[in-house]
Amino acid sequence: MTDIKLIEVKEDILSDNDAAAEKLRAVLKKEKTFMVNLMASPGAGKTSLLLQTLPALKQDLRMAVIEADIDSMVDAEKIAATGIESIQLRTGGFCHLDVSMVKKGLAALDLAALDLIFIENVGNLVCPAEFDTGATIDIMILSVPEGDDKPLKYPLMFSKCRALIVNKTDYLSLSDFNMDLMEERVRKLNPEIEIFKVSCKTGEGIDGWTLWLKKKVTDYLGA
Amino acid sequence: MTDIKLIEVKEDILSDNDAAAEKLRAVLKKEKTFMVNLMASPGAGKTSLLLQTLPALKQDLRMAVIEADIDSMVDAEKIAATGIESIQLRTGGFCHLDVSMVKKGLAALDLAALDLIFIENVGNLVCPAEFDTGATIDIMILSVPEGDDKPLKYPLMFSKCRALIVNKTDYLSLSDFNMDLMEERVRKLNPEIEIFKVSCKTGEGIDGWTLWLKKKVTDYLGA
Question: Quick check: A130 and A96 in contact, CB under 8 A?
Answer without folding.
Answer: yes
